[in-house]
Design goal:
By secondary structure, the chain is mostly helical. The protein has helices at residues 2-20, 28-38, 43-46, 50-66. The relative contact order is 0.20.
């Protein structure tokens, strides 16, 4: 089941990146909260790495500047 778990985490990260790029969120914590509200029960695990949080934060900042 590890392979399926990897896919679900990748899907949650992809959704987090999409949310971050909307410009509606200030940081990775806000994006994580939005994922949880959408029903992504694995949001915390998907965003557990510093790399993922940094990538989301950068996308949030870029989207905010663009809007």
């Amino acid at each position: 089941m590890i392979h399926g778990d990897d896919r679900s985490l990748q899907a949650a990260r992809a959704r987090a990146y999409m949310l971050a790029e909307t410009g509606h969120y200030d940081n990775s914590h806000a994006v994580q909260d939005a994922l949880i509200a959408e029903g992504w029960s694995n949001a915390g695990r998907a965003l557990d790495s510093d790399y993922a949080r940094k990538a989301i934060a950068e996308r949030c900042q870029a989207a905010t500047r663009a809007h």
